[in-house]
Write a structure and sequence with these properties.
single chain, mainly alpha, 0% strand, elongated, membrane
């Protein structure tokens, strides 16, 4: 088994070895995908291109390169997912601040309490007339009066 791998690496072209080395670096170290590349890969067309290029590596004579390329394509799509939505649909803090300031432009500088007092009906002023009725005590049903 090791002899076959050794033969594969000795027969491999230098460009394949460099590509395998770069793929291994991408997989082992947490390499951040640039936002420009991530936004391109995050689309449907970008996913198709990445998967297509990874599958095209199987046409080369080096199967190790093809398998590692397939894993790298998966990792690239995984690391790039969600970037497009964050960049285009989630507002920045500046946008949120300007929106909040636009809400506060047409505010009257009086409180709710002041508005309610100005809208209240005026109190009746003048002399209060004597009542023409008298309270009547109803039947108590053997209860004591208070």
């Amino acid at each position: 088994m090791l002899d076959e791998i050794k033969k594969t690496f000795t027969k491999a072209q230098k460009s394949h070895l460099v590509l395998i080395f770069l793929f291994i670096i991408f997989l082992l170290f947490d390499v951040k995908v640039p936002k420009v590349v991530a936004s391109l890969v995050d689309t449907t067309l970008g996913n198709v291109v990445v998967i297509g290029s990874a599958l095209s590596l199987f046409y080369s004579k080096n199967n190790i390169l093809a398998v590692i390329g397939l894993v790298v394509a998966y990792e690239l799509i995984r690391k790039s997912s969600g970037v497009y939505g964050l960049m285009n649909y989630v507002p920045t803090q500046d946008k949120k601040d300007s929106l909040m300031n636009s809400f506060n432009e047409n505010i009257k500088h009086s409180t709710l309490e002041e508005e309610m007092v100005t809208n209240m009906l005026p109190m009746v002023s003048g002399h209060i007339s004597d009542a023409n009725y008298e309270p009547v005590l109803d039947h108590l049903h053997n209860a004591t009066s208070v």
